[in-house]
Amino acid sequence: MTRRPHICEVAPRDGFQSIADPLPTDIKIGIIRDLVAAGCPRVEIGSFVSPKAIPQMADMSEIAAAVMDLPARLCALVPNIRGAENAISAGVKEVCYVFSVSEAHNQSNVRQTVAQSLDGLAAVASALPSDVALRIDVATAFDCPFDGTVPLDDVLAAVRRCAEIAPEAEIALCDTTGRANPFAVRNRFHAAMAVEGTAGNVWAYHGHDTFGQGVANALAAWDAGVDAFDTAAAGLGGCPFAPGATGNTATEDLVFAFNEGGFDTGIDMDGLLSVADRIAALPGGVVGGHLRQVPRNRAA
Amino acid sequence: MTRRPHICEVAPRDGFQSIADPLPTDIKIGIIRDLVAAGCPRVEIGSFVSPKAIPQMADMSEIAAAVMDLPARLCALVPNIRGAENAISAGVKEVCYVFSVSEAHNQSNVRQTVAQSLDGLAAVASALPSDVALRIDVATAFDCPFDGTVPLDDVLAAVRRCAEIAPEAEIALCDTTGRANPFAVRNRFHAAMAVEGTAGNVWAYHGHDTFGQGVANALAAWDAGVDAFDTAAAGLGGCPFAPGATGNTATEDLVFAFNEGGFDTGIDMDGLLSVADRIAALPGGVVGGHLRQVPRNRAA
């Protein structure tokens, strides 16, 4: 029982960007504060992207300034060197660089070839000050909304390159569409962890619950030795460029599994459910998850 | 890849009894036929219970007569010797005897003490002709809606007694409320399988998705060596005596995990989803599950 699952709450990024009308900045800041108050040890506070591409993230510097002193790991997504520079300027100490293994999805998501994105990763990695950590989101590591099953060899080649560029970075295999199955998750993590040069890397899993596999997939990753998991309170969110990818795995559903299984997530279920209820009440959000539906005295 | 998961479709029992107004008999028969046509290898066709207790099951003999020649294993639930006799008279070749480990739930469900229910099991086991198989549903094997976590020792004592009475029966540990977690499922099956005298028993898992753990729990049982799983198409159902226990694990969600993982369930996803859609359209049913919500061209 010495392993400790490490939940990264992504509702403020993967979730808020899924709501068409940008939320007021103070609402976003309040939810991030409440997530940390509920014990969330890590929160992805948003994306440093072009406000033209994703207007929901236009207020990132203001948000970062307001939350950066909270007692949690706070990371922000960046799609390129410009985003990384803006994140660093805003005081962010952990940047999450994203690219897709699938060419079709990478073009749709960041308008680059995979090779260009890997060059961008190298640029970001070399630009980071020593006190800023790097995480790499390897999107469509299982399934692509355009091309279906992504070849394992392509994933492993991408992982190898990530490890060459950033041998100590955290690498997240991301089930962008939610169509991964638990057997594939376990197998692909085992294969990725066996890639030469990855001994210094740390692993994470980012999943969606679209196909009902969210909790099972995360636990399959846990079985493979992964300790870090992206989830969103109330299951808010999805990928705007992945048709059918509605709904991150609900934080409360995965935390329930770990808490009840005797593993300490550090997250207080009552506090988490309160924030999840607030998130579920946001206008324009698509939410999911199961635990909010059960009688509250049975949830924790 | 030699293991083969064995799905038992329980919508016609656990599901139909959850719909307050009894469904027309021909609708029930049609759905059972369609489930078998979709490749479901095993269907629980209903309960031989007092029509006063559960009026939804008053037409069991008629249903049995209509479906008993279908190419599938067809089982029926029985709470007592009278139900077993009626099932045998109706031609059923597999009876499923149910009792709860928790005294409070057993009283609520079958109006007996656990000791009385175990005596009833012995009576049923000795009354069965040699060509009728016995399955034992050990309900509240994890959590009781009245008493919370059920002590593992109580479960193991019940399992030991089941194996003494019926050393070759199938024994299902049932998560009646859906509140089990995957770690407990794995641990409790390991412990049950280690009980002396169970070497000749076969194991099954019956779960609900109420707390979002349905697929993960079933796969935890699979990891422990369990090959048989109860699920309900469209997630129809619940336990009328277990408050909050809405929703069996959806057959399509678990079949997706196995089919995509390369294990042959024998079930055709398109056919299954067609039946699930029909079940979801039944008036008065509470349904769930994820796979019916995704674009159909991505489901199979």
Structure description:
Two copies of one chain form a homodimer. Chain A is an alpha/beta fold and 300 residues long. Chain A has a single domain (6-299), classed as Aldolase class I (TIM Barrel), CATH 3.20.20. Helix content of chain A is 40%, strand content 16%. Chain A has twelve helices and ten strands. Chain A has helices spanning 11-15, 25-37, 60-67, 81-89, 103-110, 114-127, 152-165, 182-193, 214-224, 251-260, 269-280, 296-299; strands at residues 6-9, 42-47, 73-78, 94-100, 133-139, 143-144, 148-149, 170-174, 202-206, 228-231. Chain A has an eight-stranded parallel barrel, surrounded by eight helices. The first copy, chain A, has a two-stranded antiparallel sheet with strand order 6-7. In chain A, helix 2 runs antiparallel to helix 11, helix 6 runs parallel beside helix 7 and helix 10 (251-260) runs antiparallel to helix 11 (269-280). The first copy, chain A, starts with 5 loop residues before the first strand and ends with a helix. The mean pLDDT of chain A is 95. The A-B interface holds A 177, 179, 181-184, 209-216, 219-220, 223, 243-244, 246, 250, 253, 256-257, 260-263, 289-291, 293-295, 298-299 and B 179, 181-184, 209-216, 219-220, 223, 243-244, 246, 250, 253, 256-257, 260-263, 289-291, 293-295, 298-299. Chains A, B: Residues 5-273 form the Pyruvate carboxyltransferase domain. Chains A, B: It holds the Pfam family HMGL-like. Chains A, B: It is an enzyme of class 4 (lyase). Chains A, B: It comes from Profundibacterium mesophilum KAUST100406-0324. Chains A, B: Keywords: Lyase, Metal-binding.
